[in-house]
Amino acid sequence: MLERPNYQIDLDVRQTWHRMSRMYNQKATTYGLSMSVGFILLHIDKDGTPSTQLGPRMGMEPTSLSRTLKTMEEKGFIRREEDKTDKRVVRIFLTETGLDARYVARDVIFDFNKKVESRIPKEHFAIFQSVIQEVQKIVDEELSEPNTEI
Asked: Which of 83, 106, 126, 144 has the CB geometry, 3.0–4.6 Å to 89, for a possible disulfide?
């Protein structure tokens, strides 16, 4: 794979993620959801999750997250409550409708993962995980370096 001229790992990662994103959105729309809504549903804890923790957990920008949470609240997937111990914190909870949608999102992701696991040998997947974790470390190192002009 590295033989091709000007190989760029980010191109493969980006193309694969865009295809996966399109696939998840296609499946989600049949249930009246979106991929973003599905992933948010999966990241809300039973005891509620502070809204400020959702963005970093998912890599979403605060404005996108706020807009999506507002839509989710309007559709009855979530409710917001003041934290009992710290009134500055707003916790997000799933409603019954949100819990049902969470199960749908979970099943869609599990089904896709089963298909991947059935087609890729465990040894290959272990290598993939090792490589992607190393790439993530390199990205983290790059992000922690001061911004320099090229």
From this structure: 83
Average pLDDT, integer, range 61-67: 90
Q: Nearest-5° angle of CA 35, CA 39, CA 45?
A: 155
| Cβ neighbours of residue 20 closer than 8 Å, sequence gap 6 or more | 112
| CATH number of the domain to which 111 belongs | 1.10.10.10
How many Å separate Cα 139 from the centre of its chain?
A: 18
Q: What is the mean pLDDT of residues 60-82?
A: 93
Q: Give the tokens for residue 131.
A: 């490589």
Question: How far, in Å, are 38, 45, 81, 116, 136 from residue 86 at the CA level?
Answer: 28, 18, 11, 43, 34
Number of domain units in the chain? 1
Range of the domain at 80: 22-120
Is the pLDDT reported for residue 90 higher than 60? yes
Q: Is residue 15 part of a domain?
A: no
- Please, are residues 24 and 38 in contact by the beta-carbon 8 Å criterion? yes
